[in-house]
Amino acid sequence: MSSFPNTDCRLLVHPPSDGAWNMAVDEYLLGWTVRSGCCCWRFYQWSEPTLSLGYFQEYSDREAHAPSRDCRVVRRASGGGAILHDRELTYSFTVPATHPLARRRLWLYGAVHQVLIGLLAARGVTARPFGEVKPGGRAPFLCFNRRSAGDLLVGEAKIIGSAQRRLAGAVLQHGSVLVARSPAAPELPGLEEVTQRAWPVQELIDTWQQCLAEGLGLRWRNEPLSGEERIEVARITAEKYASPQWTWGKKRRGGKTSQDR
Amino acid sequence: MTPEELLYRKTHEWVAVETDATGAKIATVGISAFALEALTDLVYIDLPEAGRKVSAGEPFGEVESVKAVSDLYSPVAGEIIEVNSALTDQLEGLSEDPYGKGWLVKIRISDEAALSELLDYAAYQKQCQEEMADD
After folding, report:
1. Residues of A in Cβ contact (< 8 Å) with B83
2. Predicted local confidence at residue A1, as pLDDT
3. Touching check for A237 and chain B: CB below 8 Å?
4. Is the CB of residue A189 less than 8 Å away from at least one CB of chain B?
5. Domain count, chain A
6. What is the ipTM for the molecules in this complex?
7. Backbone φ, ψ for residue A236 (5° rounding)
8. Among residues B106, B99, B102, B105, which one has the least CA distance to residue B121?
9. Higher pLDDT, B8 or A136
10. What pLDDT, on the 0 to 100 scale, is given for residue A133?
11. Catalytic one among A39, A40, A71, A143?
């Protein structure tokens, strides 16, 4: 049973798509949640291996990661480190600021990750949230090489990484479940490597959807993007996430950086 | 200024309004201690250049903490005339002294209408208590 109130939630399941389009959909849904006051959960994947940079990461930082140098790049609106999206299942969840889940940023991470812990446990896999983070030091370039409070580990491997963009009216949380190791990030094992079994993505989607309904009290409402919504997403894609200025032009000011903590 | 003397936006920015030698009203803007505690591990802040004009409720900067990027909203309309750029190198100043060294920007107010929508200390405390109660 969920400890959260039952909540109607729009559900979108998208096939593998271009990185800029994927980020534009998430931004569109954040605005949609601000306007409608409704939640939306989205499952998606990537049509080619793509490196997504955290909002404040410098483009040139990618040079430090040789295996992904030939991959396309997109910049996220959320924080944290870079993610190599390849053999993974990605989710986004937009929640109105007034919803109990959105009140504290760590709660939303914890709630989504806790559902995944339950899903894995039902299949005999023990996952645990990472404990307290010791401050100081330079954080690694890749999100999955970093450790933040609430990150989900199987053994010592981080298998889900999530990040947020918060507006006055709503919060967007999106994240990746590493299903299997990518040649473009060979240092990161996925669920298949750490559990020694296959994790078909469709099965993961179906099960996670069911666990979310039970764990977070979400009542699903299938509502694909309308034609008008797709036009708006195309505009956001062209003007923002596919633009060189957005992807390459972000410059940090000052000596403290999002790589530090 | 003490917290009791300030005004607050619902999104947790505080404002101190003073009149300068020319008679212009200047708003000093920062983030409340309550919000800073909720932000926890702050890693980066991006503030605007002086000279930028903002309207009330418009984002003027961004902060990142625990992989979350949040907008900072201007409580008033006007021109940003001064920016506390030292914060980008010394974020600890924000948490150590949120109502002093941790100020973010000073704005020359062009329209005072939005001031009436801000909360006084008692109303802001009530909002914070309600948010805590939801926890």
Report:
1. none
2. 54
3. no
4. no
5. 1
6. 0.88
7. -65, -40
8. B99
9. B8
10. 66
11. A143
Contact residues on chain A for B128, CB-CB shorter than 8 A:
none
Cβ within 8 Å of residue A197, ≥6 positions away:
none
Higher per-residue pLDDT: A121 or A254: A121
Give the model's pLDDT for residue A236: 98
Note the pTM of the prediction, 2 decimals: 0.92
Q: Least CB-CB distance to A77: which of B41, B69, B85?
A: B69
User: B67 versus B76: which is more confidently predicted?
Assistant: B76
Q: Is A253's CB within 8 Å of B134's CB?
A: no
- Residue A258 has what pLDDT? 41
CATH of the domain at A120: 3.30.930.10
- Which residues lie closer than 8 Å to A238 by C-beta, 6 or more apart? none
Residue A89 domain-assigned (yes or no)? yes
- Write out pLDDT tens, residues A32-85: 999 999 999 999 999 999 999 999 999 999 998 999 999 999 999 999 999 999
Between chain A and chain B, how many beta carbons pairs sit less than 8 Å apart? 87
Chain A residues close to B40, C-beta within 8 Å: 105-106
Q: Which domains does chain B have, with CATH numbers?
A: 3-111+118-124 (2.40.50.100)
Q: Around B110, how many Cα atoms within 13 Å sit in the side-chain half-sphere?
A: 11
pLDDT at B41: 79
User: Measured between alpha carbons, how far is B98 from B115 in angstroms, rounded to an integer?
Assistant: 21
Task: Report the C-alpha gap between A180 and A196 in whole angstroms.
Answer: 10
Q: Does A261 fall in a domain?
A: no
Q: What is the reported pLDDT for A148? A: 82
Long-range contact pairs involving A217-222 (C-beta distance under 8 Å, separation at least 24)? A217/A2, A217/A4, A217/A5, A217/A6, A217/A7, A218/A7, A218/A9, A218/A39, A218/A41, A219/A6, A219/A7, A219/A8, A219/A9, A220/A9, A220/A11, A220/A41, A221/A8, A221/A9, A221/A10, A221/A11, A222/A11
Q: What is the pLDDT of residue A259?
A: 45
Token representation of residue A253 = 């000011």
d(CA A60, CA A77): 18
Residue A2 lies in a domain: no
Q: Of chain A residues 57-96, which have a CB less than 8 A from chain B? A: 77-80
Establish whether A40 is a catalytic residue. Answer: no
Residue A107 confidence (pLDDT):
84
A59 inside domain: yes
What residue numbers bound the domain in which A113 lies? 7-132+140-248
